[in-house]
Amino acid sequence: MLILEAGFWQQLLQQFQHTSWLEWLGFISTIACIYLAAKENIWNWPVSILSIVISAILFFESHLFGDFALQFYFLFTAFYGWWFWLKKKKEDTKPVVSIGLEHWIYAILAIAALTAMLGYFLDRFTPTNVPYEDGFCTAMSFVAQIMLTRKILENWILWIVVDICYVPLLIYKELNLYAVLYAILVMIALNGYLDWRKTYREQAN
């Protein structure tokens, strides 16, 4: 794996030495918001707004234009998710839901279609050299975020997959600090899935 190579850690050490306060703030706030989401803590949404703004700046500077545009969508869904979670809390309804095979098919088809459209657009109209890789990560994140705002259990499965995919992409773009960040997010997303599954099963009983 790329993340286990000696050259990666040498580059990472050099990047640590030159990392701006903005990148560190993005690193910390992103971990915090995903951890809070995994714990079903509503404060994940305001913290995520901060991480979204920082990530938008960093992705734009790295020519990851699909992910840059995705941050505007994330910003909208952060406010929507904040409102929806507050509404659920006031209504005292079952907070976590699960989807079946039919909805999985819809999700996969949506990801495939979005990947094709975004990849084509990025390839033709931006200087990026990873149009379809960027498009795939953007498309999967788009669908996963919708599922997160609606408190659908399986959102964490999509986040695990997309976070794994981001690691080599970010290493290729020499964003090694963010590559480590997404490796950490894989573990947090796995923990989030297990916690939410426990909650879902408790509700069912």
What do these coordinates show?
There is one protein chain. Helix content is 81%, strand content 0%. The radius of gyration is 17 Å and the shape is globular. Helix 2 (21-38) crosses helix 3 and helix 7 packs antiparallel against helix 8 (176-204). The protein has helices spanning 6-18, 21-38, 44-61, 65-91, 101-125, 131-149, 155-172, 176-204. It is mainly alpha-helical and 205 residues long. The N and C termini lie far apart (42 Å).
Please describe the structure with a list of short key phrases separated by commas or semicolons.
205 residues, mainly alpha
Write the layout of secondary structure elements.
Layout: H1 6-18, H2 21-38, H3 44-61, H4 65-91, H5 101-125, H6 131-149, H7 155-172, H8 176-204
Helix pairs in contact: 2-3, 2-8, 3-4, 4-6, 5-6, 6-7, 7-8
The arrangement of helices and strands along the chain is HHHHHHHH
Net shape: globular
Strand content: under 5%
Question: In DSSP terms, counting alpha (H) and pi (I) runs of 4 or more, how many helices?
Answer: 8
Helix content: over 70%
Cα separation of the termini: 42 Å
Q: Rg, please?
A: 17 Å
Low-confidence stretches: none
In short:
The protein is an all-alpha fold and 205 residues long. The chain is 81% helix and 0% strand.
